[in-house]
Write the structure tokens for this entry.
Amino acid sequence: MYIHSCLFSSATSYYFQPLTSIFKTMTYLKRISLLIVLLFSLGFFMSASAQNKKPKFKVIAFYTAKNDKAHISYVHEANKWFPKIAKENNFTYDSTSNWDNLNADFLKQYQVVLFLDTRPEAPAQREAFRQYIENGGAWMGFHFAAFALNKSAFNQDWDWYHNEFLGSGEYESNTWRPTSAVLRVEAAKHPAMKNLPTTFKSSPNEWYRWKNDLKANPDIEILVSIDSTSFPLGTGPKQHEIWHSGYYPVVWTNRKYKMIYANMGHNDIDYEGKTNKELSFTFDNPTQNQFLTNALLWLGTK
């Protein structure tokens, strides 16, 4: 009987072993399938969550891109760089060449306004911008956005903007040709200067001098100026376009408003060779880019 039981047990084990393996395999596959479904679902919800994550703030950039090949080059470069930075830092970036969008209904969608290369000219546009700023809106302007010169296509005919808001008044002179400069951080504690070295080399640029003394204005905080080690700055050929000494602010803020002006925004172009080839790029500079990113993040916070 014992032998028979052993034989029966061995036979049962022999015949049912494949079925046991099959059941184990099916159970394993079910677990794997369930794990895959769970991972897929988790990935889907994480992706949906990231896509639905509310942006920190919204930026709108106004530009003209018609007046100078160097300015046009800069605007095209800016409209590629800013969307990348916006994606990395969870804010949105839109741009428009329609200055009629500078109105209250349009602006209420945005927390930060940029002027990439020019300023508004129509009285209604100017008034809408002034009200936007005085009601707490933020602004950053670049290079030619501050330009004004009487008896030119951009007369100084907007006192609030040039004298009150920017504080700089009219354009006085410039360096030539576009060249990089050693810049000095003047206000290291300002959020826009976070993680910047005391001095750094800029991208090539045409540098402006202004009629008003910004240093004498109690509302103006100069953030960056040209370091004395930059002199002589410029190559000419005209001697008055080469700076040998002096104090030149290039980035500043007005304490009465949420704003920053940066003189950067003029790429170097092959004018002499008449090829109009781009010889430099404003955003090809990690340290300078850090400042621009800092500035936008500061402007976008309440």
Q: What stands out?
A: Residues 1-53 form one domain. Confidence is low (pLDDT under 50) at residues 1-12, 44-50.
